[in-house]
Amino acid sequence: MVIAAAMHVREAEAISEVYKTCYEGCQKDCLSGNGFTFCEMKCDTDCTAKEAAGE
Question: Name one Pfam family in it (predicted).
Fold first, then answer.
């Protein structure tokens, strides 16, 4: 049981890193011509989808 829990934590950490990297890059690109709220919503949606797809 403990081993299975540890594996899920590692998977969550990896997925979180995918989201974080995506979000940071998206924000930098988006903010050059758009408002913060627009970019926050756009990047969250895009990166959540990318995270779910496992990219």
Answer: Ole_e_6
- Please tell me the distance from the alpha carbon of residue 17 to that of residue 52, in angstroms, as a whole number: 12
Q: For 17-47, write each residue's pLDDT tens digit.
A: 889 999 999 999 999 999 999 999 999 999 9
Residue 1 near residue 25 (C-beta atoms within 8 A) = no
Residue 10 lies in a domain: no
Task: Tell whether 38 is covered by a domain.
Answer: yes
Q: Per the domain annotation, does 5 fall within a domain? A: no
* Interatomic CA distance for residues 52 and 54, integer angstroms: 5
Q: How many domains does the chain have?
A: 1
pTM of the model: 0.68
